[in-house]
Structure formats: structure tokens, C-alpha cells
Design goal:
- The chain is mainly beta.
- The protein contains 6 helices and 19 strands.
- The strands form 2 sheets. It has a 17-stranded mixed β-sheet.
- A hairpin with a 2-residue loop joins strand 7 and strand 8.
- The relative contact order is 0.09.
- About 5% of the residues have low confidence.
Length: 329
């Protein structure tokens, strides 16, 4: 690495600091004033590539877990993080820019963030970038205290590809294809080691998709055989239109309320609760046009009249082994 700095009185000026570690390269400049009292730091950070997962390796997760609420580092340390004391002893403002940044197994292009820290509160806003083909915007507040820290974030991701978002970032292995828009608000807490506490999560948001499809999802293929036999849909490919998923997350409990979509040209409404990595209790109410009902190769629409058939699909079991049953509601 290279470093160029000078000191004059109580001012330390970092003209340039350049180094590389693994995939990450960093060019840093800044100034620290009031060095001997309460330091005031101003800085500018630029990286061509910033691999944050290389600095803070993620723990291994199963397919049933949600990657974003796993602890932020692999090994639990019982010592208090020095970052808490540092944020309470300095004031800071600066900018962070990275051509490519990896965080939680997600690459973000053209990442930009402005930071400000004062009296133990770190604000990062705005946060912008592009990931999974979509535009990322958001902000984050990180507030320290004796028990650790609280965080609050607002995030939007517009017109992103659903499949890599679900599989790489959220660790949900659902073969969902199409562009989605996500808006969310999250509150949570970290302990004194700055390990995230999943039970503290309070989040809500909305996910929208105009057109998309689920292709050969083994959960549907294994559980919707009876529905397929009636000709309602093919489990190999389920087209989706005008989907709006409204969710609340409390700890590891995911609550769906007010979710609507059109699947295989049928109006659907979803609701219920489930535990991330645990038990599921969701329902999907479907209004089936009589013309969609077939049996033995014959269309039964003429016999059933013109009114839609109210069908309820129950999703139970666990996230590892879901069970899907269907009947009239």
C-alpha cells in the first residue's frame, strides 16, 4: 500500500492512502481536526471493487433460512465492539463510492453513500446503486447505546430481476422470473458485539410485479397434482400478472395481509403467517372461472354455470417440507 499524510498542530491531513486486500482496492483521503480533543473526521473513500463479504464472511445458511437476518459475521465474539466506543468519541462526515461492491452475496454497481456521525448516531443517506438490474435507493441510521445498537432503514429497489434477488440475496430458492419493485422499512437491534439480533426485526413492505412466472418449482410440482388434474393450472409454469405482496416481518414471523395477484388468469388473494425456517400457515383464495375446470379431458364449464368457483389452497407444513392442499371455501 501507499500512504501520504501530514500533521500541523491539531490537524492531521491524509493526502492519499491506497492499498489492496483480496478483491478489494481502496483509495482514501481525508482530514482529522481537533485531534487531541473530540476528533472531527472528514473523508472520501473510493474503491474499484469493495468485497465486504471478504472482510466479514457470512455464516453458512440452509435453503430455509433468510440470508439477510443472519449474523453479520461468521464467528461470535463475546467482546464489546470497538466501533461502539469509536462512534461515541468522534464526529464524522464523508462519502463512499465503489464501482462494484459486494454485500450479503449481492453485487451492487455504482454504489454511492454519504455518511455523517455525531454523538454515537451514524446516518448513511442517501444510498444509491444498481443491483440485479434494478435501481437501489435508501438510507440507514445506526444508533449506539450501552446494550449495543439500534438500526433503522428505508429501502427501495425498482425493476429488479426477481430470480437472482430471491436466490442470491434472500436465499429463497424459488424459480420466479420477471421484474419486481420492492419498498421496505426495517427496524432492528445489534448486541454489544454488533451481532444482529433476528428476534428484534420489525419490518414491513410491498413487493410488486406486473408480469412474471414461476417455472418448475418442485414445491408446486410435488403438491399441486390434484389441482393440475382439474386443469386449473400447470405446476410446471405458472404465469403471474399484477401481483402485489404486502408483508410484515416480526422477528422470524412473516405475515401476509392484502396480497393480491392474477395467476394463470385467475384472481387470487393470499394471507396468513409463517416462520422463516419454521412452520407455515398460509392460504391462497382463488376465483376459478368454470371454463377452467376440466376432468377426464372434458371441459365442465357448461355444467357449472357462469359463476366463479371459490377455491382455497392451504399451505402448511414447514419451509423445509411444505404441504399444499386444495378445496372449496
Amino acid at each position: 500500500g501507499e500512504i501520504d499524510l501530514s500533521i500541523a498542530g491539531s490537524i492531521l491531513r491524509l493526502h492519499a492512502l491506497k492499498f489492496q486486500s483480496g478483491l478489494t482496492d481502496i483509495a482514501l483521503s481525508g482530514i482529522i481536526s481537533n485531534v487531541y480533543k473530540r476528533p472531527q473526521i472528514s473523508f472520501a473513500w473510493h474503491s474499484g471493487t469493495a468485497d465486504m463479504d471478504g472482510f466479514f464472511p457470512l455464516p453458512k445458511t440452509t435453503q430455509a433460512e433468510w440470508g439477510l437476518i443472519s449474523p453479520a459475521h461468521a464467528a461470535r465474539d463475546t467482546k464489546k465492539s470497538a466501533l461502539i466506543s469509536l462512534l461515541n468519541s468522534i464526529d464524522m462526515d464523508g462519502s463512499v463510492r465503489a464501482d462494484s461492491l459486494r454485500l450479503y452475496n449481492t453485487w451492487i454497481r455504482n454504489f454511492n453513500a454519504t455518511t455523517q456521525a455525531q454523538n454515537g448516531v451514524l446516518n448513511i443517506k442517501p444510498i444509491t446503486g444498481q443491483t440485479h438490474g434494478g435501481a437501489l435507493n435508501g438510507n440507514l441510521e445506526f444508533s449506539t447505546h450501552k446494550q449495543g445498537a439500534d438500526l433503522e432503514s428505508h429501502l427501495s429497489l425498482i425493476n429488479a430481476r426477481a430470480n437472482p434477488l430471491f436466490n442470491q440475496t434472500l436465499n429463497w430458492h424459488i424459480p420466479l422470473y420477471g421484474d419486481i419493485t420492492l419498498t421496505s422499512h426495517l427496524k432492528g437491534a445489534l448486541d454489544t458485539t454488533l451481532t444482529y439480533l433476528p428476534t428484534s426485526t420489525q419490518a414491513n413492505g410491498r413487493l410488486q410485479m406486473q408480469t412474471g412466472k414461476i417455472v418448475k418449482w418442485d414445491v408446486l410440482q410435488n403438491n399441486l397434482k390434484s389441482v393440475e388434474q382439474l386443469g386449473l393450472l400447470s405446476a410446471d409454469k405458472v404465469p403471474l400478472q399484477n401481483a402485489t405482496l404486502i408483508f410484515n416481518l416480526k422477528g422470524k414471523t412473516l405475515i401476509l395481509n392484502g396480497t393480491q395477484l392474477t395467476a394463470a388468469n385467475m384472481s387470487c388473494r393470499a394471507g396468513g403467517t409463517g416462520e422463516l425456517g419454521g412452520l407455515l400457515n398460509y392460504t391462497l383464495d382463488v376465483d376459478v372461472p368454470p371454463s377452467n375446470i376440466q376432468f377426464g379431458g372434458f371441459n365442465l364449464g357448461a355444467l357449472l354455470g357462469k359463476r366463479t368457483i371459490p377455491v382455497r389452497i392451504n399451505i402448511s407444513g414447514s419451509s423445509r417440507a411444505p404441504k399444499v392442499t386444495a378445496g372449496l371455501r
